[in-house]
Amino acid sequence: MAKSKKEIISIKSISKIYHLGTNVVKALDDVSVNIYENDFISIMGPSGSGKSTLMNIIGCLDVPTKGTYKFNKALISEMNDSQLANIRNEKIGFVFQTFNLLPKLNALQNVEVPLIYSSLNRTKRTQRAKEALKIVGLEDRMTHKPNELSGGQRQRVAIARALVNKPSIILADEPTGNLDSKSGLEILKFFDQLHKAGNTLIVVTHEKSIAKRAKRRVELFDGKITLDE
Amino acid sequence: MNNILKNILIGLGAIRSNITRVALTSLGLTIGIFTVSIVTAGASSIDKEFAKSMDYYGNDKIYVSTWPWSFDFDWWKYRNRPKIEEDYLDYINQSSQYVTDVSIKKSTWIRSSYQNKASWLQVNGVYPSYGEMLSGTEVTNGRFFSENEWVLQRRVVIVGGTVRDGFFDGEDPIGKKIKIGSVTFEVIGELKKQGMGMVPGGTIDNLVIMPSSTFKRILTRWGFDELILKTEPENLYKAKEEVGMIMRVARKLRPDQEDDFAVNSADAYQSQFDSIKIAIAGMAFMVTGISLVVSAIGIMNVMFVSVRERTKEIGLRKAMGATNNDILVQFLSEAVIISIIGGTIGIGLVKLVTVVLSSSLATTNGINFPIDFDLLLIFYTFIICLFIGVTSGILPARTAANLHPIDALRHE
């Protein structure tokens, strides 16, 4: 762990408790983890281990029940919905297993979605979205709708969308889960490139091959971190 | 502001991609707005026409005749009443303290012609004083007949606007000779055109006016006689009461006998018209109110479906940084836009119908029945649409805005 790097995320003793009827589910139990600039972390664990919950909290889609979560030294666990939305917009790029592209929009418009909620004007939005699509090598597919693209291309559009706001971290949830092995490999190589270019990546995965590519592995079991190396 | 605009544009984009559904949803409101506008426009036009007719009768005139101005005719009863005599006028003139001027009005319908054009016209024989008693119109060309012409029983007439148009086709009618029955008359004046009236006989466009002396001697002894009495508007009710008493004396009625004449004035029509108007308006607004509520429910339903269908999109947008307000504005603007589309089509239809109706009425019947179509109507429609859009959209939009991003993203 390169401790000399700038700390982006500091998570201290967080717990997340869900009440499902009379049952109390501890999805995360006293988890602490720090994430630094240019980290490439894989989060692994069996189903129900709490990795998605941790991912949601890191992604500011949810707040912990207990503990503190600081993003760039700002206390996330006490922020309201609008402030969280702002952090998600400016600091975090999401890549989902099912791509989550809007089917009625073309590639360029899909990449523009996060920028709509920023303060950029239309010309700058389009320019930034085009640049992001160029990075993922899809400059010739800008006007294609998702159903006119292959699985690998769709995921690359999703990555372009995650990159477009120049976020502090990129969160990928099973990014190759819906892809064939060839397309999956393409995406992984792309992640390597992003890491080399200085981006911070957090990938939630089941696959050991992906975890091996990461520079740091975090494993969860029953809501607790069992490995961080 | 910029943010709101961006979210409205997203809403507009969603509408564009679901055009059939939007069209069907807004159809309800189109029908609603169409009915409301037609009813409002029709009512205000009827009101205006009625006011014009009331102008003709004037708020300062009393009409004494055998027939009351009423919609519940007891035909035989009134038909058999003794004739109204011209002599009563002298009696009224002498006895009344409120009546300031009087005239007889003898009327009949006679086939009249000018060159090769012929038509049935209402012919009125009046006193010279009637020229001063005209209301709602005036002599715009030429002059009214004089005292001398009345005494000498001259064959002179003043023509109404429709007669002028029908006979003279835009030419100056003054000095022209028309035939009324078999007698030739010279046109000496022309009255300003009034348009169609809303009450029986409430028009002076399709008539000619001549000295009552000429009427009686040359035309016919069988005209329908009516007394026209002028008073001050503020004395109208007192004058009516007084004239009623004078008439009873003139008719030699015993105290136990009921009136065999009617003292009429414009306000009799006004109150009847008001009650009919309220009944029609009440019915119309109930029907249109229901159609607007139904269309609002339709929009709400479609918006709920839309939120459900696009739950994942909402989750995604929130993950990308959309705030609750962004989502609220997006869905609310969608509902308002659907509503405004419906309203705009409705207003367009109203415009189309008014143009067609006005022109077809004008060409087929030669009458002018304008339906009001003004900016105020458009403004009110816009306000109604805005209101319906917001009320029907707020609940679905709030539901969308309050969705938790994780739950929304997991939605299948």
Characterization of this structure:
The complex is a heterodimer of chains A (229) and B (412). By secondary structure, chain A is an alpha/beta fold. Helices cover 34% and strands 29% of the residues of chain A. A 6-stranded mixed β-sheet of chain A has the order 6-7-8-3-9-10, with helices on both faces. Chain A has a 4-stranded antiparallel β-sheet with strand order 2-1-4-5, covered by helices on one side. Chain B folds into 2 domains: 194 residues, no CATH class; 207 residues, no CATH class. Chain B is 57% helix and 16% strand. Chain B has a 6-stranded mixed barrel. In chain B, helix 12 packs antiparallel against helix 13. Chain B is elongated. The two termini of chain B are 33 Å apart. About 1% of the residues of chain B have low confidence. Chains A and B meet through helix 2 and helix 3 of A and helix 1, helix 11, helix 12 and helix 14 of B.
- Give the percentage of residues in beta strands of chain B: 15-25%
What general outline of chain B do the C-alpha atoms trace? elongated
End-to-end gap of chain A: 7 Å
Largest sheet of chain B: 6 strands, mixed, barrel
In the CATH hierarchy, the architecture of the domain at 38-52 and 86-228 in chain A is 3-Layer(aba) Sandwich
Helix count, DSSP H or I runs of 4 or more residues of chain A: 7
- Topology pattern of chain A, helix = H, strand = E: EEEHEEHEHHHEHEHEE
Distance between the termini of chain B: 33 Å
Mean pLDDT of chain A: 89
- Quick one: how many beta strands of chain B? 10
User: Helical amount among residues of chain A, as a percent range?
Assistant: 25-40%
According to CATH, the homologous superfamily of the domain at 38-52 and 86-228 in chain A is P-loop containing nucleotide triphosphate hydrolases
- Going by helix content, strand content and strand pairing, the class of chain B is alpha+beta
**How does the overall form of chain A come out from the CA principal axes?**
globular
Give the strand order, joined by hyphens, for the main sheet of chain B. 2-3-8-5-7-6
- Give the radius of gyration of chain A: 17 Å
Oligomeric description of these chains: heterodimer
